[in-house]
Every structure is written in C-alpha cells, then in structure tokens.
Amino acid sequence: MLKQIEEKDYSVIGQFTPAAAMGNCVYCNHCLPCPAGIDVGLVNKYYDLALAGDAMAANHYGKLSVKASACLGCGHCDQRCPFHTPQSARMKEIAGYFEK
What is the pTM of this model? Predict the structure, then answer.
C-alpha cells in the first residue's frame, strides 16, 4: 500500500533562507506532491547538473518515468515552494532543454 504524502505548509522555511537561495530550486521537494507525478526536485537537479556540464545528467533525466513535459501548469508547486521558485515555468524550460 502506498503511503500518501501529507500536505504541509513550508512557507516558514523561506524566513531562514539565504537571499541567494530565493527563486532557486534547492531540491527540497517541499513543492510535492505534484498532481502530474513529477519529482520536481530531481528534475531540477538533473537540469542544473546538465547546465553545469555533467554529461550523465541528460541520461539520468531520460530514465525518469515522469518528465517535465508532463507539467499541467496548475501552479501547485509554485504556491508551495518556500523559496518562491517559479517551478511551472521552469518545467517548460527544462522540457525544452531535455526533450527537444
């Protein structure tokens, strides 16, 4: 039986965050659960690694069962991110990068 992820309010975390982290994904997955089933933190991590020159990141991304292109644009992740990262827009960017 799958354990359901409980919805929590993580907005308080943003109060203790270095200014440089604001607007950036730190792979914490406080944005989950994603209605489309995207592992938002992992998708962002592979993207950032690929941009940093990690040649294996694209291969790892390709093996994900749910990719950024599955994003519904619902904004659930945007509302829950304590770092105010525009995840739904970033999912489009990431899909464009990996899924050309």
Answer: 0.80
Q: pLDDT tens-digit profile of 27-59?
A: 999 899 999 999 999 999 999 999 999 999 999
3-state secondary structure of 91: helix
Per the CB < 8 A criterion, the answer to whether 1 and 71 are in contact is no
pLDDT at position 82: 85
Whole-Å CA distances, 31 to 1, 20, 87, 88, 91: 23, 19, 9, 11, 13
Q: Which two tokens stand for residue 69?
A: 């292109």
Q: Residue 47 corresponds to which tokens in the numbers above?
A: 């993207």
Structure-token pair, residue 77: 């992740």
pLDDT tens column, 76-87:
999 999 889 999
Six token digits for residue 45: 């991590």
- Packing angle of the helix pair 87-98, 40-51 (nearest 10 deg): 50
Secondary element (H or E) of residue 38: none
